């Protein structure tokens, strides 16, 4: 891990000493994402406020977060060769990204599945259709017991997909299926959510630092 990445984590822990026990799980979460192969991706699932967190995390991964992510030089050259000045314009305004899919975003699918199928399998079906070995699934549940998140994580384990679980203090059922458990020190829903946001921000910051800070 780069020194600058370590400094981000140190700063985070200095500002939130009550989360020091989560230092290593946060580091492990970063490593899981960074080690993904080119064909792999991050999948995310959660309900309510946690569904909004899924969208937020994906947004930070898909484009620049705190650093300028210059386009891969090979792609830059191809665009310039193919389209000349316009290709250079396109290349100058694109950024590298980490593949991320919030499973909460499929409005037509989600409404159809909830109407026609067992609602507890909502996210598991998407993991089944989209997930491949080597992917990472981030399951967010304040209780750790959300059935549709739990079933998605159970399936992920069978498919060879690593699981990062963001939960409240107990970890709930999800702790049994998480490769990395990030269980924040509260059992109050809104307080758990308030802890989750800065945690996934520092994870995204560190992932970006490792992959794009040349």
Explain how this protein is built.
With 214 residues, this protein is α/β, with parallel strands linked by helices. It has one domain: Rossmann fold, CATH 3.40.50. Helix content is 54%, strand content 11%. It contains eight helices and five strands, in the order ααβααβααβαββα. Strands 2-1-3-4-5 form a five-stranded parallel beta sheet, with helices on both faces. Helix 7 links the parallel strand 3 and strand 4. Helix 1 runs antiparallel to helix 8, helix 3 packs parallel to helix 8 and helix 6 packs parallel to helix 7. The radius of gyration is 18 Å and the shape is globular.
Topology:
Elements: H1 3-15, H2 23-34, E1 42-46, H3 49-62, H4 73-92, E2 100-102, H5 107-116, H6 122-130, E3 136-140, H7 147-159, E4 162-167, E5 180-183, H8 189-212
Parallel strand pairs: 1-2, 1-3, 3-4, 4-5
